[in-house]
Design goal:
With about 270 residues, the protein is of the alpha/beta class. It has 2 domains: about 120 residues, Response regulator (Rossmann fold), CATH 3.40.50.2300; about 120 residues, Homeodomain-like (Arc Repressor Mutant, subunit A, Orthogonal Bundle). About 50% of the residues lie in helices and about 10% in strands. It has a 5-stranded parallel β-sheet with strand order 2-1-3-4-5, sandwiched between helices.
């Protein structure tokens, strides 16, 4: 039985404060964290034309928003109150829900040790105030481009996916677990997204955000792709009928299986 994806594809910054803007599905979300209102205003003015901006005034608020809004990038002051930028970065990198988020740290003072600490904590970039926004924008584009390249590779969910150099070990382990869970339930046509999330021991929203960031697809799409990849392998053996293969990969309806297979691979299963 096929389930429909119920979670929305876009995220919003609603209820995050008056200065937050509503996110649109076409634009990436950037979370800016600083207690300095002038810094927040300066970054907002420079980036809001291209990205959907949400803001936090301390590290604890930034962590909450990171989990709720799943930003593509977090730009955080090293001197954040409550939870410092370095500790925020380490915390983000240590949690499966946020380990995929790119982090840029900044400071009003350039010290070599700060750069080293930031990079060792897992930051992707380090900037000093005053910002060079042309350089910052170019590096933001590079971060997002690398993320898209990763999504393109991971979304195939084939054997080559295991060789991908993920952003973090947690991301790699998560995708390995995703594949294992689907393979264990390969023939279960009653397997739902809720079952999938329960097996991963994560909330539905966390699974959706994580998969959407790493693969560009939601849970239903990923389950379908893994199953169809396996179906193609079975069909290539020429040992089973199309109906038998459909059942082996969790499709109760052979006609729907054939339609999905052709959509995925551009050819009908009978031609494999």
């Amino acid at each position: 039985m096929q389930t429909k994806e119920e979670l929305p594809g876009s995220l919003t910054a609603e209820n995050a404060g008056e200065s937050k803007t509503e996110a649109s599905p076409e634009r990436e979300i950037i979370l800016i964290a600083s207690e300095e209102s002038e810094v927040l205003a300066e970054l907002f003015a420079a980036l809001a034309d291209t990205y959907d901006i949400i803001q936090a005034s301390d590290g604890d608020e930034a962590m909450v928003l990171a989990k709720e809004k799943n930003p593509a990038i977090i730009i955080a002051d090293m001197m954040l109150p409550v939870v410092a930028g370095i500790d925020l970065c380490r915390h983000l990198r240590s949690m499966i829900e946020t380990s995929h988020i790119a982090v840029i740290l900044f400071s009003s003072m350039y010290e070599r040790e700060n750069v080293i600490y930031a990079l060792e904590a897992g930051a992707d970039e380090f900037f000093t105030i005053p910002f060079d926004f042309e350089i910052m924008k170019a590096r933001l584009r590079n971060i997002l481009y690398r993320s898209q390249l990763l999504r393109d590779k991971v979304s195939a969910m084939n054997k080559e996916t295991d060789q991908i150099d993920y952003k973090s070990q947690l991301d790699k382990e998560f995708m390995e677990r995703v594949r294992k869970v689907i393979e264990e339930q390969m023939s279960n046509c009653e397997f739902t997204v809720n079952d999938f999330c329960s097996e991963l021991a994560m909330s539905r929203s966390s699974v959706y955000n994580k998969l959407k960031t790493l693969t560009g697809n939601g849970p239903n799409d990923i389950i379908r792709v893994v199953r169809l990849n396996h179906a193609r392998e079975l069909l290539a053996q020429h040992r089973y009928t199309i109906s038998e293969v459909a059942m082996k990969v969790g499709f109760a309806d052979p006609k729907y299986f054939s339609t999905s297979f052709k959509k995925q691979f551009g050819t009908s299963p009978s031609k494999i």
